[in-house]
Every structure is written in structure tokens, then in C-alpha cells.
């Protein structure tokens, strides 16, 4: 089992063999009045990877993106934040030059056309006129916006606006891109298009920091996922590591004959049954070996279910377990390979 | 690229954006033009006979009143135009594109400078249009020299710049367009409480100090002096002081509001 201790962005690790972090933040804090939004969030995103910040509405995802992209200032007590190798507090303009941001709400100028939006970005990146036109044309082509280029952006559909938004972010070729809920409100086709776009970016070596409330999206795209809940990181790791945090893998047997169900329920002691649905759940990690032994055993006991399904815990299980109203349920045992940071106040100065 | 060339380049990019908006959606500007033109026609042709009796110690006629009222109407035009500025700044700040600009390595003041320059250009255009209406109904400068015309234009541009910066700040503190238009109301009300329509000395004694020293009256009196040859006196310096003071105040107020964390 791989050791997956969360890389802590401390001085020791910076001197070591690790690739440089594109984004690192220590003890991110932010309050609005009496309401604490972020309560000490540590993040590290290695260069060229996709990092997904996953959390329910109001968890503080957007606030993290806003702070890391220099839009709002971090709260007092926040440690060092580095983005693209620059200290965010000391040199925000250098950070801004290194990043591209696509916020949750469309950041296009609706009063002007798609093409004019693109040329505006080219001008703000100080491209010469001809190069600006070339870059704008290329990106409009790449994002399938050529036909709509001469129409006001306010007339675009949600998916088109989002594509224009990303296209504008890509003018200037940023190496670090923040995407705040890039697919919220998109139809399934547009969502898959957006995933394709994000994969292309990553293939080009870009670091992507995205937030999402869709577990499927984090699973599809991200190298590492952090679950943000109530202003704290509830867990961090790869999708696989997070799934292992939550027990719940099982084989489910469904019966149509109540008599067969009762017989099986008596025979399989470790199973939990649902008398209404006539189903039995046998705990299992879902590996081939475990399945075979269960099948062999069922054959030997002459139990024949009408349907057998293997249920591996998905991110939904993790999500609900970690972001429930009672707070994170600390996983125990060797299966807990991803890190659940111990939320002590030791970072408070 | 030096800081100054960066500032100029980014500001002119933003200006192009604002001018594009104004060109595509001219209705707001045109609506704001309507008010001063209506006031001009109303005061000259409906109230003209009564109003003219109150100026120049009696014996004045409608032509005299046109000469009296046009300078005030021109400055009122600027007041009306900057209400539009406050509304459009407030609208603009609710747009996602502003967050994009904030997260880009561009000159911090460029967005606001773009608004200000575009708005001052619109004010100048509006003043020329309203001035043309004034000339059409009989306004004539008596003996203004080329230098005095130049000074008159300079004063109008300076006054427009001052009010625009204040209006930008008003737009920034307004959560929506309605609030912006309410906050900018003094820009329309102050000309009514100035020497634009009636001489200050015909107002109640307790009110005269306010009317005399508020920004519009010195500017109106200076413009009258330049175009019609009346006594300018201390109004010239007072007008310039108001313009410079409001510009500096509006500039620093707006920049500091823009630098605040967005809500």
C-alpha cells in the first residue's frame, strides 16, 4: 500500500526531491464578520497536476480560489501562500501574471461580442495587434466559437459562455489555471466537452486547480482531491485513497423468493439483510479473490440469488461520510491511507 | 514596460471597451441629454417671461434670459451625464469581467480611468449638443476672445473630470443601479440650488452662502464671465479649486473603494 502522507509545504520538503509546487498555502484563514469561512486550510498542488477542491455549497471553495487568485485578501493568521513561485502577499502582480482564473460566474463582457472579448484580453496582455488577432482567432476556433464570434456575448448559451470564459482565460498562456465550478449549470454534453478541454490543458503541462461539488468530476479529472467542509480540509488524497477511507464495499444478493432469502439470511452470518427488499449485503473489498471465495461459498451452501451486484464505495460515500452534519468521521485502521489532517490549532500564531 | 506606459496602455484598452459600450448602447446617454434640453426649453419658453423679470434689475427680456441660463444648463448637462457614469460603474462592478480584470496583471486603476475618460468625452459631446440647441434658440457669446473660448472649454472639461471621479466613487459604493442613481442625485439637484436659473442674491438670505459657494455657482459664474463678459471675480479661482479638490478627492476615494475586497 503506497504511503500517501500529505506533502506538507514546510521548509524541509522544499529543499528535498519533490517537484516544485505550483500552489502552496499554509493555514489559510478567512472570516467575514463573525462568520469563519476558512479555518486553517493547508494546500499543495505540484506542477502539472490537477487538484480538485471538493465540497458542498458554502464550504468555502470559492473563497479559497478568490484568495489564491488575489481577488480577496487572506485573513489574519494565514501562513505563507506561494503561487507560481511568487509570494502572494509580497508580489500579487507577479502571481496575477502567472495565473488564469475562470470564476463561478461568467467573466465575459456581455455587452460586446465574443471576438471583442478575446481582443480585449489580447490587448490587456500587451500583445501586438496582429498577434492578438491571431491568438483570438485560434482560441475562438479551438473552442468552437467562430460562428458566434460576431454576436454579443450576452446572447450566448450557458455552455458557449463558459467556453468563451475559458478561451479568455487562456489568452496569455497561463501555466496555472483556477477553475471555480467549471461545469456547474452545464448540460451533460457541455460538461463532457469541458472535461475534454481540461484534459487538453493538463496534457499541455498546465497546473489546474478546480473546485467542484460533483464527485464524478473530481474522480474523472483530478490527480489529488481535497474534501473541504466547513472551512477545513476533511480529507485529502487520490480518488482511490479517499474511497478506501470509507468502509462500505459489499456484495449484494437480491432474491425474489422470500423463502430462499430467509434460508440465505440464516446461512450467511456476516451478512446484513433487508427483509423488505429481500437483499443481503456481504462485506467485501470487491477484489477478484474475495468475489470468487464468496461465490464458491454460496455454491457450497446451495444459495442461488437472482441478482448479484458488487458495490464498491464511491466518492459519494466518502463525501457524505466526511461532510455530514456531525463533521468528519475519523477513519481508523490500516485502510485509512489518505490523510485526514488532525485539525489542531498548532498553526495559529 | 515602465509603470507609466503600462498604466496608459491598459487605461486606453479599458477606454476602448467603455466607448464600445457607449456606442452600442447609446440610449442611456441620450436619455440623460433630454433633461437639460427640456429644462432649457421649459425655462426659456414657458417660464421665460417671469424668470427674465428677475435678472438684470428688471427690464430684461427673453433673449437676455437665454444668455443668462445657457451657461448653467451646460454645467447641468455635465451633472446629468455623470449620473449615467455612476449607474454604469455600479452596473459594471456587478459583472464577472471585473473580477477577471482584478486577477490580471494590469494597471490597478485602468478600469476606473477607462470609465472616467469615456465619461468625460461623453460629457463634452453632450455639452456640445446642448450648446448647439442653445445657439439654435438664440444664445450668442457677446465678445469672447479665442483665449476665452479655450478657457471656457477647459473649465467644462475640468468640471466634467471632477464630477466624473466623484460619480465613479458613488457608483462603486452603490450595490445596484437604482442605488447609484439615487446616490448621484445631488449632481442633478445642485444646479437647481445654484445661480443657474436665478441670481443668488434673489434667494433667501440664509440660503445664499450655500448657493454661492457650492461647486456649481462659481463654475457657472466663471463660464458666464468668459462667454458674456460679466464680472468673474473670485469665482474663477473658486471654480478651479473646486474642480481640483473634487478630482483629487474622487480619485483617491474611487481607487481605495476599488482596491477593497469585492463583496
From TrEMBL, chain B:
Q: Which Pfam families match?
A: ABC2_membrane (PF01061)
This protein's GO cellular component annotations are: ATP-binding cassette (ABC) transporter complex
**Membrane topology (UniProt):** Multi-pass membrane protein
Q: What is this protein called?
A: Transport permease protein
The source's domain of life comes to Bacteria
Please list the GO biological process terms of this entry.
response to antibiotic
> Which family does the similarity line name?
Belongs to the ABC-2 integral membrane protein family.
Q: PANTHER family of this UniProt entry?
A: NODULATION PROTEIN J (PTHR43229:SF2)
- Give the UniProt keywords, A-Z: Antibiotic resistance, Cell membrane, Membrane, Transmembrane, Transmembrane helix, Transport
Q: Which residues cross the membrane?
A: 25-46, 66-89, 110-137, 149-172, 184-200, 236-255
One Gene Ontology molecular-function label = ABC-type transporter activity
* Localisation: Cell membrane; Membrane
Amino acid at each position: 500500500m503506497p504511503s500517501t502522507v500529505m506533502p506538507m509545504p514546510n521548509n524541509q520538503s522544499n529543499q528535498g526531491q519533490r517537484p516544485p509546487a505550483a500552489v502552496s498555502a499554509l493555514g489559510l484563514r478567512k472570516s467575514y464578520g463573525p462568520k469563519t469561512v476558512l479555518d486553517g486550510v493547508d494546500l499543495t498542488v505540484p506542477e502539472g497536476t490537477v487538484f480538485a477542491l471538493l465540497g458542498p455549497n458554502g464550504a468555502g471553495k470559492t473563497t479559497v480560489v478568490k484568495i489564491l487568485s488575489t481577488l480577496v485578501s487572506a485573513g489574519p493568521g494565514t501562513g505563507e501562500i506561494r503561487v507560481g513561485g511568487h509570494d502572494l502577499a509580497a508580489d500579487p502582480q507577479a502571481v496575477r501574471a502567472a495565473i488564469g482564473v475562470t470564476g463561478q460566474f461568467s467573466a465575459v463582457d456581455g455587452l460586446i461580442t465574443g471576438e471583442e472579448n478575446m481582443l480585449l484580453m489580447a490587448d490587456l496582455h500587451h500583445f501586438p495587434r496582429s498577434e492578438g488577432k491571431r491568438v483570438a482567432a485560434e482560441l475562438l476556433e479551438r473552442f468552437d466559437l467562430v460562428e458566434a464570434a460576431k454576436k454579443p456575448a450576452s446572447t450566448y448559451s450557458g455552455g458557449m459562455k463558459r467556453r468563451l470564459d475559458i478561451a479568455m482565460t487562456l489568452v496569455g498562456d497561463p501555466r496555472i489555471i483556477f477553475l471555480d465550478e467549471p461545469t456547474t449549470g452545464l448540460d451533460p454534453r457541455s460538461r463532457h466537452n469541458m472535461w475534454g478541454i481540461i484534459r487538453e490543458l493538463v496534457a499541455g503541462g498546465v497546473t489546474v486547480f478546480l473546485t467542484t461539488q460533483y464527485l464524478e468530476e473530481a474522480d474523472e479529472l483530478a490527480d489529488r482531491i481535497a474534501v473541504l467542509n466547513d472551512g477545513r480540509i476533511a480529507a485529502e488524497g487520490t480518488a482511490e485513497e479517499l474511497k478506501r477511507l470509507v468502509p462500505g464495499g459489499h456484495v449484494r444478493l437480491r432474491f425474489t423468493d422470500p423463502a430462499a432469502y430467509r434460508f440465505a439470511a440464516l446461512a450467511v452470518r456476516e451478512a446484513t439483510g433487508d427483509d423488505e427488499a429481500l437483499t443481503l449485503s456481504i462485506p467485501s473489498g470487491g477484489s477478484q479473490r474475495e468475489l470468487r471465495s464468496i461465490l464458491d461459498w454460496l455454491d457450497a451452501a446451495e444459495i442461488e440469488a437472482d441478482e448479484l451486484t458488487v458495490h464498491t464505495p464511491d466518492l459519494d460515500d466518502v463525501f457524505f461520510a466526511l461532510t455530514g452534519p456531525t463533521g468528519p468521521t475519523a477513519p481508523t485502521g490500516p485502510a485509512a491511507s489518505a490523510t485526514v489532517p488532525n485539525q489542531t490549532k498548532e498553526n495559529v500564531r | 514596460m515602465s509603470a507609466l506606459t503600462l498604466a496608459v496602455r491598459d487605461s486606453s484598452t479599458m477606454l476602448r471597451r467603455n466607448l464600445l459600450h457607449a456606442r452600442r448602447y447609446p440610449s442611456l446617454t441620450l436619455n440623460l441629454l433630454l433633461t437639460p434640453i427640456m429644462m432649457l426649453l421649459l425655462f426659456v419658453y414657458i417660464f421665460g417671461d417671469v424668470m427674465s423679470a428677475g435678472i438684470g434689475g428688471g427690464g430684461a427680456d427673453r433673449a437676455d434670459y437665454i444668455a443668462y441660463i445657457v451657461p448653467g444648463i451646460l454645467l447641468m448637462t455635465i451633472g446629468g451625464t455623470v449620473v449615467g457614469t455612476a449607474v454604469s460603474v455600479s452596473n459594471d462592478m456587478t459583472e464577472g469581467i471585473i473580477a477577471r480584470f482584478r486577477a490580471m496583471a494590469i494597471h490597478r486603476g485602468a478600469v476606473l480611468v477607462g470609465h472616467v475618460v469615456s465619461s468625460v468625452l461623453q460629457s463634452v459631446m453632450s455639452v456640445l449638443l446642448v450648446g448647439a440647441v442653445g445657439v439654435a434658440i438664440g444664445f450668442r457669446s457677446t465678445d469672447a476672445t479665442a483665449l476665452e473660448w479655450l478657457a471656457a472649454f477647459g473649465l467644462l472639461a475640468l468640471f466634467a473630470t471632477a464630477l466624473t471621479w466623484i460619480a465613479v466613487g458613488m457608483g462603486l459604493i452603490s450595490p445596484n443601479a437604482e442605488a447609484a442613481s439615487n446616490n448621484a442625485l445631488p449632481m442633478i439637484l445642485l444646479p437647481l440650488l445654484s445661480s443657474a436659473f436665478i441670481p443668488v442674491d434673489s434667494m433667501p438670505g440664509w440660503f445664499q452662502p450655500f448657493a454661492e459657494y457650492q461647486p456649481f455657482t462659481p463654475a457657472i459664474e466663471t463660464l458666464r464671465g468668459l462667454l458674456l463678459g460679466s464680472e468673474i471675480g473670485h469665482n474663477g479661482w473658486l471654480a478651479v479649486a473646486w474642480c481640483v479638490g473634487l478630482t483629487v478627492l474622487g480619485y483617491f476615494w474611487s481607487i481605495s473603494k476599488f482596491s477593497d475586497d469585492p463583496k
